[in-house]
Input
Amino acid sequence: MSNAVRASGLAPRALGLTVVLSLILSALPAALADGHPWQEGVWYEIFVRSFNDSDGDGVGDLQGVIRKLPYLSELGVSGIWLMPIHPSPSYHGYDVTDYTDINPDYGTLDDMKELLAAAHALGIRVIMDFVPNHSSSQHPWFLASAAGDPAYRDYYVWHSAPPDWRGTRGGSAWHPSPTGAAEHYLGLFSPGMPDLNHRNPQVVEEFKQIARFWLELGVDGFRVDAIQHMIESDSGQISNTPETYEWVREFQAFMHEEAPHAFLVGETWTEMPAIIRYHESAQLDMSFDYPLWRVLLAAIQGRSAADLGDVVAQAEQLYPEDAVRGTFISNHDQTRPATLLSFPRRDEQRMKLAAGLLLTLPGTPFLYYGDEIGMPDGPGSFDVEKRTPMRWTEPTAGGLFGFTTGAPWTNPGEVPAGVSVEAQQADPGSVWHAYRRLIALRGALPALHSGDFTLLDAGARAVLAAQRSYADERVLLLANLSTRAVPVNLAALGVQPDAVTVVHAPLEADEAAPLPLGAELELGALSLLVLELR
Ligand SMILES: [Ca+2]
Ligand SMILES: [Ca+2]
Output
């Protein structure tokens, strides 16, 4: 398999895709009849720099990821999303200087081919971050554009008297030319990230070629960074413009033609109506469900399921039926649940409940590396603290923790004992084991990964009650978000107690809860039950 995938990277386009596709079809699990294979599993976001260092230089790398694929398989994930792995002047990589190469800190194209082959052999798909909205200000395209090279001049947006547009962080969206010329360029995120001009068909074509390059290498799709900011309107609207929807529609059509097995997931960091339009108007394969992220964590913090239930029910109604939502409770831009939910002290039960909701509600879940062990944010308050090195072992006397044999590239901060893969795997009651049980349960019950959702009224604000069903399979979800036990009457939810065939308590070390239940059951504090019904 390794050799075949390696060869396909250099083969003519059609041949390469055929080879890669047939390998994928043989190695990766098939989907239920009405779904896509990529929507049924659980995905895992990896910041390569912080995941696992294979050579002791203190920086995580692709060989480090390859060595941890069996770990991911054991956890049960069926796909990984690699944050940017291209050459870049920044630590995070969202300002790319070469879109078809690998950051030398992380390895080589051969390492990437090896990673793809090894992941596919384990049934793990691989998607990459794709950053078409902006490049690095060090990208040769931008340097040529700034210097006035006619071939690249229109790759970016220049203005001699720029209008008063605000960028994503509130300051001016325009920055003075690095050449000292009396003109400004557009950079919505920062001066180091000039926006590419996707009104220029040559730029659009460049990104199709880049996507083709990685698809031929064997990647299974892309997470599209800053998707809502692709094209600004003349009036200064910087998000969700008609031109941006059109760009997404065209790029999706290209992707489907080029690689039917692959998919796009967009960083749709916006409100529900705008996200829905990416499905309705642009046929986006998958959006990220930012509304659910907000309401799910707020529900756990506020100990009330009311808004959470309403938002999920509303989403079920309003999204087109074939729209796929990528759900998450954390990513590289957000405070980790272990930090957010551990006030004033570490609260693993809350972390498990957040995971339990994520993995039983509708959508395709994306986990963020480290959340499965309840890893908190680092010591400061910048974005880098959400991206600190993975804790593989309990700290040694020398302060090592399995990430590197050298000095980590960033200060990992103090972390309490027990927050490591080693310690969490040794404790059946840990956050890690709850994730593992939840992922397995979700995989075993099509109602959980592909079923519909009907909100029920349990008569208590702290309790989320819902039925999920797929074909003739029915499950009842019961989650108690409060810190007190709450009685729940099954008959009042329309469920006869003798209809319950199996009770799962996946947050608990002893996951098989006792049968039979009476008409009234007591739902423990911060607990989740999944009841299979006949
Ligand atoms: Ca390294
Ligand atoms: Ca833009």
